[in-house]
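We modelled each protein-ligand pair independently. The example shown here corresponds to the zinc ion entry; the chain sequence is given first, followed by the ligand as SMILES.
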Amino acid sequence: MATAKVKASKKSIISLPNQHLRQRSKKVGLISDEIIQIVDDMQVATIDWEKSRQHEVGVALAAIQIDKPLRIVIVRNNPDNKDDPSFTTFINPEITKYEGKKIKDFEGCLSVPNVYGKIPRYSKVRVKALSPSGKPFRTTAEGFLARVFQHEIDHTKGTVFIDHIKDKPEAFYKLTETGELEKLDYDKDIKDNDVLWAY
Ligand SMILES: [Zn+2]
């Protein structure tokens, strides 16, 4: 017999209507070699996805997005620089405090192709997590990064960003081929969309 390890790629990323995206992920216990491999696969999959997307950056990913229901999040260190493929890993991340006001801004998701939304998020959050070596650490995020943490930690709880705007006709956009965000027709494209709302 033979075995072959399938290398992670953008094909590892699951997308709606896959029900797994709406399930809660489990807390990581021992940070085993398998967990480290999942982190590596998440990074490879995100960068591979980005290579296929002309107008988007792979800013962050949660493990459930490669169909691993574990509380692991990776966040790009320099999302403004596509030449820097490095990430920071957050194991069992938790938001310990929400601060500031809720601000609406655009968000997209590797697991929700081409749909963008204007989502209200707190402007500042405090996060605690474990590093891949098991060391607890804390960080404070503001602005865009605060938004990223709220989006990703939602994934660990089975919430997809569009769930926050389900009843907000004006909040849905699509990315056009030229990289513009264009308003979607809520009644036609969103409201009864089986892909987005299959629970
Ligand atoms: Zn996402």
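Strands lie at 60-62, 72-76, 87-109, 112-130, 136-142, 172-175, 181-183.
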